[in-house]
Amino acid sequence: MAEFKLMKGNEAMAEAAILAGCDAYFGYPITPQSEVLEYLAREMPKHNRIVMQAESEVASINMVYGAAGAGFRTMTSSSSPGISLMQEGISYIAGAELPCLIVNVNRAGPGLGTIQPGQGDYFQSVKGGGHGDYKMIVLAPASVQEMADFVYLGFDLADKYRNPVLMLSDGAIGQMMEKVEFKPYTRPVVDKSAWATTGKPKSRNRNYITSLFIQPERMEVHNLKLEEKFKQIREHEVRFEEINTTDAEYLFVAYGLSARICQKAMDIAREKGINIALLRPITLYPYPYQRLHELASQVKMMLSVELNSGQMVEDVRLGVNGKVPVEFYGRMGGMMPTPEEIVHHLETLIQYHHVN
Amino acid sequence: MKNNNQLEELIVAGFGGQGVLSLGMTLAYAGMLENKEISWMPSYGPEMRGGTANCITIISANKISSPIISLFDSAIVLNQPSMDKFAPRVKPGGILLYESSNIFKPSTRTDIEIIGIPATTEALQMKNAKVMNMIILGAYLQLRPVVSNESILEALQKVLPEKYHHLLPINRQALERGESMVLALKGQLVN
After folding, report:
1. Which of A56, A210, B164, B178 is packed most tightly, with the most Cβ within 10 A?
2. ipTM score of complex
3. Structural domain of A246
4. Residue B4: is its pLDDT beyond 70?
C-alpha cells in the first residue's frame, strides 16, 4: 500500500525537489511560502545539495540563471511581489534557453497586497511578465499531492524544452495540509554537454550561454527558433482535468484553489438539478483552447471563477470565440468565495441568460 | 450519526497558544492513519498574528473537494470571539463544543447540540495547561467518533517530536478525561 505523509503544500514541494534531484535552490523568504526555504535549508545539506538564501529575489533568479547555465537542476520559489522582482531574470533565462523551475505561491496584490491567497498573477505568468517574446510552461497545482507531482513534471519539461517552467500555486494550497504520496521517480539522464558551461575540454569548442544577439538578422533567427519551440509545447503539453462533462449544460472553468471550491459548488448545483461540469486547466500555458472550443458546442454557458478581477476568463473567451456566453465570478484581496456564493451567482446568471 | 460517518467538516477556533492548530492537525493525522481523505486548512493571515487562530479540518471517506467551506458539521470554539463568529455557521443538527471556563456567553441556538466543558480548569487540575486541547479533542470524539482513540494516540506519537514522548501518557489521560466529562454531562441531561 502507498505510504502517505501529512504535509503542507509548501513542504511537499520542497521534499519533491529533493527527490527530483534538485542540485541547487536559491530563494529569499516571503509569506506564504517561507516554509520552502526553511525546509530546504534544513534538508538539502544532508544530501550534499546547494541551498542558499540570496540577498534578494533579483539575486535568487540570477543565481538560478548561473546554476542552470552550468548544467545544474535548479529552482527558486517566492510569492507574488518576489516573483515580480524576478521577471528580468526569467526573460534572460528564457532567451538563453535554460531549464529551471520557478514556483510562485500567489498572494493577493497589487503591490505588497496581503499574504492571503490570490490568483492575480495569471497574466504575469502566462502572457509573459518579463520583456520580449517568450513563454514559460505554467503548471497549476490544485492539491498538496500536485504540489509534489508537478515538481518532477516541471523539472522534466524544463529539461525537455530547455525552457523555464513556472508552477503557479497560491497561499491556500501552499499552507494547507493534505496527505501526499511521493511516487517513485527516476531523474532522466539529460545530455547537456552541447550547451552547458561545465569547463571546456580540448575536444570541443567553447559553450557560450547568452540572450544577447545584437545583429537583428541573428536575433530574428533566434526568435523563430524559440517560436518553433513554443509551438511544439502548445501541440504536446496541454493538460487539463474535466469532471461531469458528459451530460453538462453549463461549465465552470477554474484552476488551482478556485477549481477545488468549484468542485464543491458543482456538487451543490447538481443537487439542485443544474447540470454543470468543471474544466480545470492544469497547464495555464499551453492553454486548453481546443477542448473549450469543443465544449462550447455542448454547453449553454461557461463561468470562469478566479481569485482576481477576471484574467483567465479572457483565455476562456479566446477558446469559445463567441459561441456561448462566457461569464466571470471572482473575489480579490485574499478573500475566497464560498461554494454557496458561487452557486448563487450561477443561478442568477442562468436566469439572466434565459437559457433554461 | 449523520452522513454515516462519510464526511465531517469541522472548524476549530480560539486564541493562539491554545493548541487550536495542533488539535486539528492531530485529528487530520489520525484520519490519514485510518486511510481516510483529509484536509487541514489553517488561518495564517493577520488574524493569526493578532492572536486568534482557526483551522478547517475535513475528514471524509471520499475525495475532498473544497478545503475552504463556510458551513460546518461541527465547531470547536475556545474563546468568545470564535463562539460569536462560528456558532451561526454550524449546520442545523450539528455540534457546537466550547470551552466553558473561557466562554461565558454561549450561543442560544436551539437547532444544534451545544456542549460546554471547562477544559482549561480541568487541565490545570492535571497540572499541565497545555493538554487543554486534548481534553477538548477527547470530548469531541465522544460526540463525533470520526476516528478511533488509538489512531489519535498513534498520531500524537508521530506528530510530537521524540523529546516530548514522555508526555504521551498525560495526553492519553487528557483525551479520556474529555470523554468522561461529556459522558457525565449527558448523564446529567438524561437525569
Report:
1. B178
2. 0.92
3. 241-353
4. no
